[in-house]
Amino acid sequence: MEPIVLKPEKEQKTMWFICWAIPFVIGLTVWTVLLLVVEPLIFGLCLVGWLILMFLIVLWIPAFYNSLEYVIDIDSVRARAGVFWRKRVTIPFNKITNIDITQGPVQRIFDIGTVHVQTAGAGGQQGAQAELRLLGIRQLEEIKDAIMERTRDHSVPDSDRIKENDYQILGRVLEELTAIRKVLERKRS
Length: 189
What we know:
The chain has 189 residues and is of the alpha+beta class. It has one domain (1-156): PH-domain like.
C-alpha cells in the first residue's frame, strides 16, 4: 500500500483565527472599559503588552499550521508538528486500540474534523486523550477506514511467533491450573 500523506485543510487555520478573534474582541471590550478606570500609563503598558501577544499569536497560527503533516504508512501512523518545539509522533499499527472521530460545531460548518488514534499504553487521565490527533481532516471516515484496515492487517497473529518453548510454558501453565482445580474440588467435598 502506498503511504497516505495528509496536511490539514485550510479551513483548520481559518477556524483557529476565529477562535483567536473571539478573545481578541472580548479583550478589546475589556480594554475599553479599563480605559475609564485604570491610570493611563499602566493602561497603555498593559495594552501594548496585550497587543504584542495578540500579534504573536497571529504570526504563530500560520506557522503551526504549516508545520503539521500526517503520514499513514505501511506499518505506522506518523505526525509532525511544532513551531518552536518540534514534535514527531509514531504509532505502529499493532499498538493502535481505538480510532475516534470528533467534529465540533465550527468544524462541521467547515466540513472538517479530527481523527484521534489511541493506544493501550495510555492509562488513567492520559487514557482519555489520544496519542495522536490528525487535525483539520476532511475525509474523516475514509482516513479512519484506511487506518483501521492497516491495523487489521498488522493484528493478524504470525504463526511463526509461537516457538517450541512457548508450547512448553503453556503446557506447564495448564498442568498448574489443573492441579489448582483438583485442590479446590477436594476442598468443596
